[in-house]
Write a structure and sequence with these properties.
Layout (H helix, E strand, L loop, with lengths): L2 H23 L5 H11 L1 H18 L15 H14 L8 H12 L5
Amino acid sequence: MSTRARAAVLAAIVLAALASAAAADETYITGAHLKAACEGAAPDYCRGYLRGVVDVHLGNSQKERYFCLPVDQGTDDELRAVFLGYIAANPAKINEPASIVVWRALRATYPCKP
């Protein structure tokens, strides 16, 4: 089996695991699920999830911002690094809802200036 085929099979297995974990709880995925995706198991899922959290925040926070991304930052790779760095520094948060962990990571890294 080629490397690409193995990677595709692995990604399919991880996505199935993420889907079953989400279906089992049906309320949220955890920081642990997102960490697994971001560490290589499902990089497209990771990027989409992180970008989705940012987009929802920007779309719903016209009066008060929870975090403030600088204009020149917030690339997919930077968002991934921020999330993974936060989880590494705060391992007790790993089983919390992934969206909350991402928000906290972004707020810690990109606080809004008063």
